[in-house]
């Protein structure tokens, strides 16, 4: 889910009231931010420190509320990073989707019996504004608190809302950087991971502790240049997307297919049945490569296997050699099991 964050005026907006029964959508919007349970980040800490200093508040937090807790991305005064949702004042702000000012928590029946009011920090004053995504879901708050009752006028509320915009700006930046990272590791034509992403995953898999084997596959489309030259690049692109979809449909969760470049794909299988899965795929693959137009696509697949930990360059080179052996022999696939390296491409 792509989440865009927008500015919110600090007054309740009935036109954007969240319909009943959409808590699941709110939680999905929160999870899509990828913020929960992340490490402290100085940009959020600075905003919280600046906010607390401005209002002279001994307590405050950038809070996100999920289905069972409030969680602090940044805080002032608190020694813990989360509390149960039923004990959360910020959850009230999230539920009402509007700023919440409580001059004296002991006089408000919603807060008078909370642990943070009767014990612990003994919060007596609360002011919070909601953090709202562009799809209309309140995911958290920016709030300040005190151990004595206080008044908090409209001017202060406007300033607190402006501080909350700094939080939203940082969340937007995190999302933008995450999107850029995803784009840098995704092939735009097929939507598959690209070579950079595959190499990174392969290196991680090869560095695993001794255990189950892994299987690397290098796959090349046969006579793809002829398709491009005779039928055009639009058809060639359609063939690449078709192959990506068909092979992807054969894979199980945890198995990786990537476009490695041009008309070449790479495959990574791990787990105790990796070898059996590799053999099953070589059997099933030819039956799934006839396009709806009637065009039959064929591939040459080279497979190499090794126990972990292993050498990524060794696996790639052996799989590449096996792929050329399959192509020269007119086979769909060839499997190389721990054989010495032949000279060839790296």
From TrEMBL:
Q: Which species is this UniProt entry from?
A: Deinococcus aquaticus
Q: What keywords were assigned to this record? A: Plasmid
Extract the SUPFAM superfamilies matched here.
Answer: GAF domain-like, Nucleotide cyclase
Q: Does the keyword Ribonucleoprotein apply?
A: no
Write down what this protein is called: Sensor domain-containing diguanylate cyclase
Instruction: Please indicate which superkingdom the organism of origin belongs to.
Output: Bacteria
Q: What InterPro entries does the entry give?
A: GAF, GAF-like_dom_sf, GGDEF_dom, Nucleotide_cyclase, Rev_trsase/Diguanyl_cyclase
Query: Which positions fall inside the GGDEF domain?
Result: 212-339
Q: CDD domains this protein is in?
A: GGDEF
């Amino acid at each position: 889910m792509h989440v865009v964050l927008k500015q919110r005026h600090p007054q309740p907006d009935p036109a954007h009231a969240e319909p009943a029964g959409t808590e699941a959508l709110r939680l999905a919007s929160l999870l899509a931010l990828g913020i929960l349970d992340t490490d402290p980040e100085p940009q959020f800490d600075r905003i919280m420190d600046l906010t607390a200093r401005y209002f002279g508040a001994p307590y405050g937090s950038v809070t996100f509320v999920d289905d069972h807790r409030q969680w602090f991305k940044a805080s002032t005064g608190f020694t813990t990073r989360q509390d149960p949702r039923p004990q959360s004042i910020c959850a009230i702000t999230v539920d009402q989707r509007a700023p919440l000012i409580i001059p004296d928590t002991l006089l408000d029946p919603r807060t008078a019996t909370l642990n943070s009011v009767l014990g612990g920090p003994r919060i007596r004053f609360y002011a919070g504004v909601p953090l709202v995504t562009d799809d209309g879901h309140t995911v958290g708050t920016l709030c300040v608190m005190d151990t004595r009752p206080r008044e908090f006028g409209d001017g202060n509320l406007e300033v607190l809302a402006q501080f909350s915009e700094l939080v939203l700006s940082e969340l937007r930046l995190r999302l933008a950087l995450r999107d850029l990272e995803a784009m840098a590791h995704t092939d735009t034509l097929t939507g598959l991971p690209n070579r950079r992403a595959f190499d990174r995953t392969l290196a991680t898999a090869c560095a695993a502790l001794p255990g189950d084997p892994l299987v690397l596959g290098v796959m090349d489309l046969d006579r793809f240049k002829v398709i491009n030259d005779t039928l055009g690049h639009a058809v060639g692109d359609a063939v690449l997307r078709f192959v990506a979809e068909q092979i992807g449909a054969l894979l199980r969760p945890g198995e990786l297919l990537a476009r490695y470049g041009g008309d070449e794909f790479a495959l990574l299988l791990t787990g105790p049945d990796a070898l059996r899965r590799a053999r099953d795929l070589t059997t099933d693959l030819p039956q799934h490569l006839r396009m709806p137009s009637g065009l039959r696509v064929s591939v040459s697949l080279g497979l190499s296997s090794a126990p972990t930990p292993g050498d990524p360059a060794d696996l790639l080179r052996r799989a590449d050699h096996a792929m050329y052996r399959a192509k020269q022999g007119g086979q769909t696939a060839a499997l190389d099991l721990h054989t010495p390296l032949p000279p060839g491409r790296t």
